[in-house]
Amino acid sequence: MAPESIALWEKFLNGDDSYRNSRFKVIPRVIEGNWLVMKACGTSKPVLYATKLTHYYRKTDRFFEISCDTTSSKIASSLADLCVGKASTLTFDMAIMIEGRDESELPEQILGVFRMTKPDLKHCRKVLLPSKEDIAHSKPSLGDLMTSMSLKKRTSVK
């Protein structure tokens, strides 16, 4: 990774939520699926998601986590509902990056990419999430939830 990208990554990791929200960029791309979903999602145009949706950031000495609340926007919530109903027909890619704004932060580099191919959401385990008030005050992490679920599962099995 280029030194400019490392410096930008370190600023992102150590910045406050306002800085992170202004720089967290994704490039979504629907590869295959329902026509309506493909039209609703649009083209693979870079988006500063955190300026449109509420994001929670958690940093420890072991990981850095970003959680996106798709219910924080009516439009995003409606789009998510549409996608969930058609998920088994979808293949989509998501690239994650930090926006560079001046010459010293360019060129931008992709931090990671993932692909979901026709996920079957009927077999997903439902997880009771904390209320919005609890999230706003404590900012629990997905790691915390997974640990909690894992501990409950281990303690309930004899």
Automatic annotation (TrEMBL):
Superkingdom of origin organism: Eukaryota
Upper lineage: Eukaryota, Ichthyosporea, Ichthyophonida, Sphaeroforma
UniProt-listed Pfam families: EDR2_C
Annotated Protein ENHANCED DISEASE RESISTANCE 2 C-terminal domain residues: 6-118
InterPro entries listed in its UniProt record: EDR2-like, EDR2_C
Protein name, UniProt field: Protein ENHANCED DISEASE RESISTANCE 2 C-terminal domain-containing protein
